[in-house]
Amino acid sequence: MKRYVAVLVLLAACTSAAQQHTETPLSPVSSNVAGADTPKQAVQEFLAAAHAQDLKAMALVWGTNNGPARDVVEHSQLEKRELIMQCYVTHDTFTVLSEVQGEKGARVLSVSLTKGQFSRQSKFTAVQAHDARWYVEDVQLEPLKDLCAAS
After folding, report:
1. Which residues make Cβ contacts (< 8 Å) with residue 25, sequence separation at least 6?
2. Half-sphere exposure (Cβ direction) of 122: Cα atoms closer than 13 Å
3. Which of 25, 110, 115, 145 is most buried, by CB atoms within 10 Å?
């Protein structure tokens, strides 16, 4: 009996530790506030919007140092680009593994995305715009091609 209890405690501890490092999809941005407070939050909101297939929310947090993509990319091009990115970043869970300084004040976040049996890592670049908000400027899509093919 003691051995059974010890195994249960060990399993519970392992499960708890794994949950601390895996982020489940967030609810997409529900307001019209563009950008995010931090680079990590920008990536989280971008992935949540992609997971929810919410192109409007994606356009609020995807952008450049000039602001959100919805304000700088023509609407027909915006939607096409978002649909492509959405396919590549579709996921069941994701984990932000690290964040480092990039060029010209950008932040580069290493992210692990898992969909079904596939788990892939990629780099997301976040930039701060003139409005002091953070936007996902770039996603390395090549490492995520298996996730898109699995969709």
Report:
1. 47, 48, 51, 52, 91, 92, 93, 94
2. 24
3. 115
Q: Provide the whole-model pTM.
A: 0.79
Range of the domain at 92: 25-149
Number of domains forming the structure of the chain: 1
What is the spatial distance between Cα 15 and Cα 86, in angstroms, rounded to a whole number?
29
Is residue 14 included in any domain, yes or no? no
10-residue stretch averages of pLDDT, the chain, 151 residues long: 37 34 46 90 96 94 94 89 93 96 96 93 97 96 88 66
CATH of the domain at 89: 3.10.450.50
Please list the alpha-helical segments (H only) found in 22-136: 39-51, 55-61, 69-72, 75-89
